Amino acid sequence: MSLFPPTTSDPLTAAKVVLVPANRFFVQTVPLEPGAEAGTQTAYVLEEFSPFPPAQLYHGYLAAPDRSQALVFAAYRRRFPAAETEAWTAADLVLPAFVALLGSPSGGAELIVHAHGAGLTGVVWDGASALPAIVQAQAGAEPATDEQRAAFVAELRARSGHEDAPVRILEGEIGVGRDAESGFVFSVGEVETARFPAGALESADVRDKAFLSEQQQGRRRDQWLWRALLVAVAASGLATTLDLGALALQGWVGRRRGIAAGQAPQVQRIETAQALAERIENLASRRLRPFEMLGLINERRPRSIQFLRATTRGNNLLEVEAQTPNAADVGNYEAALRALPALARVETRDLRARENLLTFVLVVTFKPDAGRPEGGPG
User: Fold this and answer.
1) Are 132 and 22 in contact, with CB atoms under 8 Å apart?
2) Beta-carbon contacts of residue 106 (< 8 Å; ≥ 6 apart)
3) End-to-end alpha-carbon separation of the chain, Å?
4) What is the pTM of this model?
5) Residue 272 and residue 254: Cα distance in Å, rounded?
6) pLDDT, tens digit, for every residue of 39-95?
7) Cβ neighbours of residue 334 under 8 Å, at least 6 residues apart?
8) CA distance 318 to 336
9) Which of 78, 117, 263, 328 is 20 to 30 A from 35, comparing alpha carbons?
């Protein structure tokens, strides 16, 4: 099943698209209520799942064509240095790199793994949905070995439950181009991986929403000014040849009034969005900061231990499901965490051994305000 239908097969032109490393983003597929605006619903999803207000996130979403689901993604702004984000201003789009892998699978369940430099990005399709079931990425200091790739594929299969799904491995840099209808086409090497029609990726742009709104308003203003210029030239010509300058001027004034009236709904939508953002920020400022909490306990994590899932309970409690091939590292990790001044209590439970792996649940209680950031970005 294709996420979006192909636009055209015409020759491509260059596109100014910035692709951000996929491993920086939290990704979640969520259902959408029929008939409701997708952007508003995804904003509430961020309110529910994100520990930060939208002002501290770079985020976006990609809705399925039938609007039944949306792929929501967000990243903490402090993970992006200013030198990196300066290049975003002149770009047409700024997207997580995994968007380039969201074309249609060959049929049925399928795993697509993209090896690029020192990183691996995996997308799992279940064969039924227009959106991927799982998007996962990891980065290392060196290119992944064959054993690391095999372990990455095994983890994707285990998470998705598609143990027998075929795997497509793509290697190389991602290319982006535009076709004659301004659609975006992504490829890895000579393989086309995704094709989106014009406008389909606007909601996936992760840049600051106020900045994007200003850009859209500027484009609309430029379009209207260009049209107004054409009208003025035409009016001047008509006035010179047919002595109808006064009538042409009245028509131009009427059109300008129509432009102002047409922009009124856009102004109302911006005011509504601003009020919603303020409400989300007020609510989020009183919530836990799981990303910060995970960051605190991750500093002492042995490399053999992998986090599988993390959930918060109450106000200061974090539960992490994890696994390791080295049972001794569990006790060492618990002892290292107990030494952290930010933690009030550390408990390990539900230890289970299976297939040379030890799974366990780590329950960490933080001291009041230990998991909250001191401030957000400007």
Assistant:
1) no
2) 166, 168
3) 42
4) 0.54
5) 28
6) 888 888 888 877 788 788 999 999 888 888 899 999 999 889 988 899 898 888 999
7) 346, 348, 362
8) 16
9) 263
